[in-house]
């Protein structure tokens, strides 16, 4: 068993243990609240645990081969996974996305519950309202789990714990800001100068995804281990371009990915009207009539497979896919160059290179 595999197992166990402790708190209020815990388990199972892994290897990049208690970093890594689940629940509501990881999204699960029970009102309204609350509950639980891990620190490590908490708080603010920028661009792009659309799309992925998917977990783990300012800066310099590359790959999958491996319908980002870097680059080279067609179709939730195929072909012929692939390669090279002389443990640098490849070459 590799060290990363062991970490994932520990995080999965920690999440399960945490939910077991929270279940009686919820069930004692009312048995009607059982779906909150059941659906939480569903959204916290599976996944590649990339954020947990980046947190752990950020921690190890400071600790090196030094023996230490894993409990604090495992709790922090698990807290990041719960935070991620909360973000997905809210994101699916905002995007009107019906699926997640090959199954129903949270609001659709609650909608199905409403329909099965034959309750009053509309299933859609109930589903959205309930999923908002589930996302809020998961956000709160991520904080509780992080705090449990920080409480396990020894007295001389409490300063490092406070630094990790500050980094976690900063991450939450940035993700919320990035989410707002994402929905803003879907509406405001039409009045923005054409020359600014690419930079605005890059700003969205930086704050909505790149920082919290890669950079923040690295820095939280390193801060928890008592990392020096130089070590934290090195991980920031590595994590940001890698996080951008990670999201650029995700944007490609959101348009061209195979539903059987991504767990989302092919072309889902087109239905949701995502104003991604891919779309911004396509618009730069498309002819006026083709650009008009792309703009008119993008964000139409009724898009069917033939219309999606037309948009996919437009984007391919624009050369945008090749340009995004080049951007991914550039960002990965920028990130990996940081590791060459970074003041980080050698084993961790090797593992970070492996993770770099996994998150940017994925097809799932």
UniProtKB/TrEMBL annotation:
UniProt-listed GO biological process terms: isoprenoid biosynthetic process
Pfam family, one: polyprenyl_synt
UniProt keyword list: Magnesium, Metal-binding, Transferase
CDD domains, per database record: Trans_IPPS_HT (cd00685)
Coiled-coil regions listed in the entry: none
Cofactors (names): Mg(2+)
GO MF annotation: an example: prenyltransferase activity
Domain of life of the source: Bacteria
InterPro entries, alphabetized: Isoprenoid_synthase_dom_sf, Polyprenyl_synt, Polyprenyl_synt_CS
Family to which this protein belongs: Belongs to the FPP/GGPP synthase family.
Protein name: Polyprenyl synthetase family protein
Organism the protein comes from: Cryobacterium frigoriphilum
Taxonomic lineage: Bacteria, Bacillati, Actinomycetota, Actinomycetes, Micrococcales
């Amino acid at each position: 068993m590799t060290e990363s595999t062991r970490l994932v197992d520990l995080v999965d166990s920690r999440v399960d243990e945490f939910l077991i402790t929270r279940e009686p708190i919820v069930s004692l209020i009312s048995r009607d609240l059982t779906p909150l815990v059941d659906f939480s388990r569903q959204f916290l199972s599976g996944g590649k645990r990339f954020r947990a892994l980046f947190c752990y290897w950020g921690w190890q990049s400071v600790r090196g081969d030094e023996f230490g208690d894993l409990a604090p970093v495992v709790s922090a890594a698990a807290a990041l996974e719960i935070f991620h689940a909360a973000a997905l629940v809210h994101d699916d509501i905002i995007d009107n996305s019906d699926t997640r990881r090959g199954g129903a999204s949270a609001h659709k699960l609650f909608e199905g519950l409403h329909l099965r029970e034959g309750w009053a009102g509309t299933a859609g309204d109930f589903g959205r309202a309930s999923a908002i609350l589930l996302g809020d509950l998961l956000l709160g639980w991520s904080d509780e789990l992080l705090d449990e891990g920080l409480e396990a620190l020894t007295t001389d490590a409490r300063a490092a714990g406070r630094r990790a908490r500050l980094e976690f708080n900063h991450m939450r603010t940035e993700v919320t800001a990035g989410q707002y920028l994402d929905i803003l661009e879907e509406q405001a792009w039409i009045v923005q100068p054409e020359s600014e659309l690419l930079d605005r799309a890059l700003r969205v992925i930086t704050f909505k995804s790149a920082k919290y998917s890669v950079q923040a977990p690295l820095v939280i783990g390193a801060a928890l281990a008592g990392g020096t300012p130089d070590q934290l800066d090195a991980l920031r310099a590595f994590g940001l371009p890698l996080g951008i590359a990670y999201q650029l790959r995700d944007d490609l999958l959101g348009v061209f990915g195979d539903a059987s491996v991504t767990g989302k319908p092919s072309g889902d980002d087109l239905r949701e009207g995502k104003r991604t870097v891919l779309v911004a680059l396509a618009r730069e080279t498309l002819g006026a009539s083709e650009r008009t067609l792309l703009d008119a179709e993008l964000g139409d939730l009724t898009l069917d497979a033939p219309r999606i195929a037309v948009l996919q072909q437009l984007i391919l012929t624009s050369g945008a896919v090749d340009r995004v692939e080049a951007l991914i390669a550039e960002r990965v090279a920028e990130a990996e160059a940081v590791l060459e002389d970074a003041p980080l443990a050698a084993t961790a640098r090797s593992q970070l290179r492996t993770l770099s490849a996994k998150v940017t070459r994925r097809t799932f």
